[in-house]
Write a structure and sequence with these properties.
Elements (H helix, E strand, L loop, with lengths): L13 H14 L8 E2 L1 H8 L3 H13 L3 E4 L3 E4 L4 H25 L2 H16 L4 H18 L3 H21 L3 H19 L3 H25 L4
Antiparallel strand pairs: 1-3, 2-3
Helix pairs in contact: 1-3, 1-7, 2-3, 4-6, 4-7, 4-8, 4-9, 5-6, 5-8, 6-7, 7-9, 8-9
Pfam family, one: FCD
Keywords: DNA-binding, Transcription, Transcription regulation
GO molecular function, one term: DNA-binding transcription factor activity
């Protein structure tokens, strides 16, 4: 659960700092869909006023990560199957574009970093939480290689909205092994400067993750 603010970024307001921390925790699965986000508890945890927490929750609502209900407070947003489909459609388009641009721009030094991050994925194939985290960081790094700040920002926001669902898509070893093979193809295409192949590989990976999420939610009666 949340920890008190440390090394606060003075360029950010307190509500924004808290919103960013909660967004990361939601993406990492520390808060489940439907969990209550209680103002009093969060204010005590972070040592701030309830008004500050209230503003942070409004920022989370704008990002699609929290739902604020009149007289009932805030909770972590629980997406419908249609909303998951819509988010993954946007995500697939974004990551494929990012990989295409990365393949066009990738330097030898950046290629080495990509290969190193791919090795981290392989090394953590048996650890669902770590594999998921490294996968998300790899997506963010590829977005940074695209040299498009707007694309990187939107990709990061969507990654946080679906982060908890990505964990579902990678819950089994079989799914992580399939994911790793797709990542290997994507990274190879980027590092060998094949833009269209890189875009197609990353698009397929996003669709593969989407299908795994919907399959699991359907199996458990959540979709």
């Amino acid at each position: 659960m949340p920890q008190p603010l440390q090394n606060a970024n003075l360029l950010k307001t307190l509500p924004l700092q808290i919103a960013d921390l909660l967004a990361e925790q939601i993406a990492d699965g520390q808060w489940a869909p439907g969990d209550r986000l209680r103002e009093t508890e969060l204010a005590s945890t972070y040592g701030v006023s309830r008004a500050t927490v209230r503003e942070a929750l409004r920022l989370l609502e704008i990002r699609g990560l929290a739902t604020i209900r009149p007289q009932r407070g805030a909770c972590v947003t629980q997406l419908s199957a249609k909303e998951i489909l819509d988010l993954y459609a946007v995500r697939a388009a974004m990551v494929s574009t990012a990989s295409r641009l990365a393949a066009e721009r990738c330097t030898p030094a950046e290629a080495d970093i990509l290969k190193g991050r791919l090795r981290l994925l392989a090394d953590n194939i048996g650890e669902p939480a770590e594999y998921t985290r490294h996968s998300r960081e790899l997506v963010e790094y590829i977005a940074s290689l695209a040299d498009n700040a707007i694309l990187a920002s939107y990709a990061s926001d969507i990654a946080k909205q679906i982060g908890r669902y990505v964990r579902i898509s990678l819950a089994t070893l079989e799914r992580r092994e399939r994911s790793l093979r797709a990542w290997e193809e994507t990274i190879q295409a980027i590092t060998t400067h094949e833009p269209e192949r890189a875009a197609a590989c990353h698009y397929r990976l996003a669709v593969q993750n989407r299908d795994a999420v919907l399959e699991e939610l359907s199996r458990t009666g959540q979709a």
